[in-house]
Design brief:
Number of strands: 5
CATH topology: Nucleotidyltransferase, domain 5
Shape: globular
Mean pLDDT: 83
Strand content: 15-25%
Distance between the termini: 15 Å
Radius of gyration: 16 Å
CATH class: Alpha Beta
CATH architecture: 2-Layer Sandwich
Number of helices: 4
Largest sheet: 5 strands, mixed
Strand order of the largest sheet: 3-2-1-4-5
Number of domains: 1
Oligomer: single chain
Order of helices and strands: EEEHEHHEH
């Protein structure tokens, strides 16, 4: 009987771009998603001034939706991001997914806070391999 491999996505989120890896294997090439920012005004993913506290700029919402569209087939999603408070892009994406894409949100198996800007793609994948090895060990999954 053939064993079906579930799709694991590694999502490294920053204010300037999101990298989505379709595997934690060495050498995996990520898809790059950038927020639409033709005038360079999206330096921070903060709440919009002058709007209710739950509002976000439309460009941010388009960015989050573009990320969501790439995650629809995932069985397990690992998020990696840096920042705290209002500049925490990873937290904003998690919040958006929970509110607008509950099925995707339920596939999130972890969220790691790392210094995303200083990590290479290889180091991001290494973080993911370590995380998934621990997760698999916890659930008794053998590969």
């Amino acid at each position: 009987m053939e064993q079906v491999q579930s799709l694991r996505l590694i999502v490294a989120i920053s204010q300037k771009e999101t990298l989505i890896f379709r595997s934690e294997d060495k050498g995996t090439v990520p898809e790059h998603i950038h927020p639409f920012d033709p005038h360079g005004v999206l330096h921070h993913l903060n709440r919009s001034a002058g709007r209710d506290q739950g509002s976000r700029e439309p460009e941010n919402l388009k960015y989050y939706e573009a990320i969501a569209k790439t995650l629809t087939d995932a069985h397990q999603i690992l998020l990696l991001g840096s920042g705290t408070g209002a500049s925490n892009a990873m937290a904003h994406v998690q919040e958006y997914l929970a509110k607008h894409h509950s099925a995707i949100s339920k596939a999130i198996v972890g969220a790691l806070t790392v210094d995303i800007q200083s990590l290479t793609e290889g180091e991001i994948l290494k973080e993911a391999r370590t995380f998934f090895a621990t997760l698999d060990h916890h659930y008794g999954v053998t590969g």
